[in-house]
Amino acid sequence: MIILDQTTKRYQGGHEALRSVSLQVEKGEMVFLTGHSGAGKSTLLKLITRIEVPTSGQIRVNGHLLNRMPKRQVPFYRRDIGMVFQNHQLLMDRTVFDNVALPLRVSGAHPDDMQRRVRAALDKVGLLKREKYYPQMLSGGEQQRVGIARAVVNRPTILLADEPTGNLDPLLSREVMNLFAEFNRVGTTVMIASHDLGLIARMPYRVLTLREGSLVRSSAIEGLRNG
Ligand SMILES: Nc1ncnc2c1ncn2[C@@H]1O[C@H](COP(=O)(O)OP(=O)(O)OP(=O)(O)O)[C@@H](O)[C@H]1O
């Protein structure tokens, strides 16, 4: 579960990226996070991954109070969170297998275990036959799916994505969103920051909307659908 309680984030220089945001995402829920460019979506995801810390207010994730988490505990905490980026941030000189294996190498997994888990993750995103390919040999949609496999290889309970369909055409965007929905169906909590209102409106999930750092709406999307 993700809980923000009157969370404010002011960056150095004084810009208030988030203003007293309170929200709760239930365990096993899938939500979209939307808002204009600069509204604070990435900042919110960075607070949840503990890349940034709030200036005031609290964040609690899976029972951990992030404000008070000692630095040495952060890598362990992050193993339970998968992160997907718009530009997927794959290593272009490594194979698909090695890219997906990266988080397991960092956490010191046993080689046998690594192989099994990388293949399981690639299987889930439909890329089992591409493990020996290099990223540039794949389409944009496939590259994004490698990024998703890497994010889930540690079997995180929370999956976060920052504009994961930003570079994809509508069909591939839909495929990628459906993939997130599949991970959600088996129990993963999913939060996706996205500008793609058309796509979001077609999916049955709660939408959190930020405007200039404030949460302006947290609702089901009936209005959007009917409108
Ligand atoms: N490290 C930083 N230092 C100072 N200001 C920052 C920093 N990171 C973000 N900001 C500012 O905070 C505000 C919110 O940024 P953020 O990246 O969270 O927005 P966003 O909603 O994700 O935008 P986009 O959709 O364009 O990615 C912006 O005004 C941005 O310029």
TrEMBL record:
It is found in: Cell inner membrane; Cell membrane. The keyword Cell cycle applies. GO terms for cellular component: plasma membrane. Residues 2-227 form the ABC transporter domain. It is a peripheral membrane protein. One of its GO terms (molecular function) is transmembrane transporter activity. InterPro entries: AAA+_ATPase, ABC_transporter-like_ATP-bd, ABC_transporter-like_CS, ABC_transpr_LolD-like, Cell_div_FtsE, P-loop_NTPase. Part of the ABC transporter FtsEX involved in cellular division. Important for assembly or stability of the septal ring. Belongs to the ABC transporter superfamily. Homodimer. Forms a membrane-associated complex with FtsX. This is Cell division ATP-binding protein FtsE. It comes from Natronospirillum operosum. The gene is ftsE.
